Amino acid sequence: MMDVRECDKRVLSDRYVRMVGSLLMQAPTNSTPEPKPEPTQTPQVNLDAPVRDPVSGSCDCPYDTDRRGRSCGKRSAYSRPGGRSPICYVRDLQAGGYAYRQ
Fold first, then answer.
1. What would the 3-class secondary structure string for the chain be?
2. pTM here?
């Protein structure tokens, strides 16, 4: 016959083995690594993009057209020194307001 102490030890060891076994079954395995999140990329901004669509009859920006339908180009207020300085391109804008263009 078994001693009572030996029987208690056997019962405790069986419980311990079951508990450890169940914990090992729940533990994640490192066989498949978790996918790394892709780094977020900031969109590239084209600074030479026009701010608005071309307007016919007004020569504020170089890409506008005059009354005859010709491109304003160097005749625009944007291209001439002094006077008005309209905002025509993205590079003329700044986060806090409008950039001063010389």
1. CCCHHHHHHHHHHHHHHHHHHHHHHHCCCCCCCCCCCCCCCCCCCCCCCECCCCCECCCCCCCCECCCCCECHHHCCCCCCCCCCCCCEHHHEECCEECCCC
2. 0.51
Burial class (CB in 10 A: 0-12, 13-18, 19+), 64: buried
Report the alpha-carbon distance of residue 61 to residue 38 in Å, rounded. 40
Q: In this structure, are residues 83 and 77 in contact, taking their beta carbons and an 8 Å threshold?
A: yes
Q: Encode pLDDT of 52-93 as tens digits.
A: 899 998 899 999 999 999 999 999 999 998 878 888 988 888
